[in-house]
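Collaborator request log, item 7. Partner lab (contact: R.S.) asked for a structural prediction of Glyco_tranf_GTA_type domain containing protein to inform their binding assays.
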Amino acid sequence: MKEYSRLFFILAVFVSTYIIFTLQLIHVSPTKKPIIKEEGNKTKVKPNEIAIVMVNELDGNDRYKQAMDTLKCYSAHYGYSFNIINLNSFPKDTINCVYKDFMFRRHCLLSNFAQKYEKRFKYILFLDGDMGVVNPLHRIEEYLPEGEEEIIFYDRTFNYEIMAGSYIFKNSLYSRNILNFFADYEYKMPTISNGRDNVALQGVFVDLIGNTKYPDEYRRCMGIYKKYKNYEYNMIFVSCMRNILEKLSEVPKEMGYQYFDGGRIKVLKKMYKKRWARDSWLSHWRFCKDDFVLHAWKAEELAKNPAFFIPTFEFNENLCKSSKFLDAWTYNKSAKVSCEEIKKDVNEWVVGAYNTHLKDLNSSRYLPI
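Returned to partner:
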């Protein structure tokens, strides 16, 4: 009998230890989602159900020609729909987009475009006019929302803003409503602020998902926003709001992204592997195989920085649709480097942004409002 009791005791200890260890691995808390290993995107969609959309203020802009040509070629090869919309090309669908600042109006225009083509396009990749494809071997399908995700944003690298100039969304009423809410934030923005939609987006997020959960911090952040004096005040407001968002995130801090509203809104962190774009100047206009889209691709920047391509990039529909389409991307050999070199360059900006964020966050607690 004593032997059975001893064996039972050992078994009980083993089972208890196993349960505790398993629960720790799952890392579940009442307000956090469990850590789930991502195995790649399993979203089922045809290429012609994906739209790449730019929203420009004018009909044409030579400043962005090379960036746009890369997107035309990329879309032609894979069968995506590439669309450039503006007030002239989309006049009948702008009646509700009454905003002074085009940077806010564009999100309303995009929402209207998405609604107009909701039967045709299941997913939309929105890009700033100065964004282009540097590595066409990546497919948009790698970056699409999965499961309950509706809309995906990413953090800017050199500061603590969420990027307003590019996001990917499921063409649903939920996503379109977020874009309209974003556009409407123009009416809440201080009249003297010049931060435009990039700065406002932090307030948009907090207003959408939790401005009543941390009321004292929220009032202080908005007080700083309304007292705008310069760029530094904008960044203090951004850090103030990002601190609230960190508390509202539904996944542990160590994850490479943040989830909000039951996982329907996702924000990718600075070094997360599924980011689709970054600023070109972070790495001195060099790139590696992990890069897909680069930002700040303007004619004046191309003129004063090392060229990506030799001699240049020209859209050729026949070539782009052929099996030799990669010949369109004839790189300057010095522009393509190892990903270790790129990560080193980018990480310096990440560290600098974090240190500045801590300073700005500290300032947000003491500034008079």
